[in-house]
Amino acid sequence: MTKALAMVSGGLDSILAAKLVKDQGIDVIAICFKSYFFDESNALRMTRQIDIPLHVVDFSEKHFEMLKNPKHGYGKNMNPCIDCHAMMLNYTGKLLDELNADFIVTGEVLNQRPMSQTKTSLDIVKNESGYSDKILRPLCAKNLPQTEMELNGLIDREKLLDISGRSRKVQMELAKKWDIKDYPSPAGGCKLTEPNYSIRLKDLLNHSQNVEARELELLKYGRHFRVSQGAKIISTRTFDESQQIRPFLSEKDLIFFAEDFNGSMVILIGNPDEDDIAFAAMVTGRYSKGKDEKLLKIKYGNFLGELNMRLAIKPASEEEISKYII
Ligand code: SF4
Q: What is the CA(278)–ligand 1 centre distance, in A?
């Protein structure tokens, strides 16, 4: 039986491409990727709806290395989509033998995205993947030259599609026809396409030689303030956020709370000096119910240790806050 590996991002297009191939009687295994910036949760949700197995590849470290200097640059934010796609195709290509599969399926649509899905970009991705003659793009196959798989009769070109452009009309109709209801917005799920996350990531890369995985996780929570080359403040916005962030804190980090008022948990990471500590206390005051007090007591200490240090401060002003916020 012919077998295909369908690269599934977690969005609608890639699942439609997989389904189109599955409906030709081909055995389809979904492949999805996990990195510091996206995970398998959407892909799991989508593959269940068309009943195909999912194989998750964790390429976090290699992906992060690529992200620091992508050959084809970034999109609108810190998303290096061309390099990222080529990398995913290369990893999937390497799985062809291991999983005894014949070819790769992707959900790309010609001219749907300005950076990564122009004809030139599709060609770059294909050529740089190292598996150019094993890639089938079922949603726009009829707009592209015939592939080896079509010529060899592994798949029927007549049953493939000719979608092109940004309209989602055909995809919506197919989703309805196949009863696929639960899908995220296009590119949803990749932090690298989010403007705020991208600004923080750029700041981190500019200030740290050896970025730790936990620092990338921390970028997802709270408000961030760059106070010096070696130190950064994070102020959590809700109680839930102050709980969710805890697994990514280290014993070296300092945490701050206002002593007599409810408010944000503030974290100081890196190698802070006395001024950084004082400003973290001022930020803590600003994001507490005591923000209008003239003088406020702030308690702080190392995460997991005792909060046995105290500072009396004046809460930070809007002007001070806006000077350092990332
Ligand atoms: S949106 Fe994110 S996951 Fe998708 S190709 Fe671009 S960088 Fe990679």
A: 39
